[in-house]
Amino acid sequence: MKKISILGLLIGLAIVLAGCQTGADSTKAAGTGDIKVFEVGNTAGLKVLKMGLIPADDAAEMLRNYEPIQEYLSEKLGIPVEIQVTSDYTAAIEAMRAKHIDMAWFGPFSYIIAANVAGAEAIVNGVKESTGSATYKSVIIVNANSGIETLEDLKGKTFAFVDPASTSGNLIPRKMLIENGIDPDEDFSTSYFAGTHNAVQYAIANGKVDAGASGDNVHQRMIDSGEISADVNKIIYESEPIPGSPIVVRGDLPAEFKQKIQDILVNMDQQTIHEVDGWGGIARYQKVTDSDYDVIRETAKILGMDVTSAEAASK
């Protein structure tokens, strides 16, 4: 009996020491500057994390561009991640309200509608490599052959907006036009919503429309890729900086899980960041809060635009 007791003590001591050593190694890894350790598990009961994207680009291209973030999140969270591009901004908001998606990439204006309607909560946005800023701008673009040189010249011309819930493709350009004495509902011979930023740019390039509104990030990306030419799609006016498009989560998810997703995005490695072309020249992701988008709420209020229902995203 004595031999068995001594053997048991030795085994127990070995287990304790092994556990201490494992704990020390984990602490060391988490404390290094190059390695960030995230505990897999504790996924708020989700077996799959579903992320929605507003249609800023061709849907198939967006899904290809976002594959690296899909793989990255799945690895860090320890569960599969599914990404879908919704048909329009309203569909993305409704999907979050119905809990068909848990996470989304919204524009600033669609975010404040989603916050009111679907309980969306902004957690991060991207800091640009080119400027070191987490902002972008709305731009008014014209076809170089349209004869338009100033905003005043837009009167009587044809004009394309992006989507009713687009920030740089509707909310901010409307503000700019009104401030410069142009009624966006009365002063164009024809105006319409093209659906995506790309569609606006193509319509201008092909002469289908004289002018339109888009984001400067999309405009530059399409020039860099050769999809449009700066000699044809010419910027004549730009807005003040706009807070960057946020990545959001459902507000009713457990706080610890939301914090985990936020930390994973903020600590994303450079290789993954640069592989995600759809996020456009991003150097890193920074934490944001709902109040960072109050300026968008104030702009919507000034313009008398509804932000209290999902239908507001389609008006």
Radius of gyration: 24 Å
Mean pLDDT: 86
Uncertain parts: 1-38
How is the largest sheet built, in terms of strand order? Answer: 2-1-3-12-4-13
Largest sheet, in brief, is: 6 strands, mixed
Query: What class would the helix/strand composition place it in?
Result: alpha/beta
Helix content: 40-55%
Overall domain count: 2
CATH superfamily placement of the largest domain: Periplasmic binding protein-like II
Name the overall outline. globular
CATH T-level topology of the largest domain: D-Maltodextrin-Binding Protein, domain 2
β-strand percent reads 15-25%
- Extended strand count: 13
Q: Give the helix tally.
A: 11
Please trace the helix and strand order, writing H or E for each element.
HEHHEHEHEEEEHEHEHEEEHHEH
Q: Determine the N-to-C terminus distance.
A: 83 Å
| CATH domain class of the largest domain | Alpha Beta
CATH architecture name of the largest domain:
3-Layer(aba) Sandwich
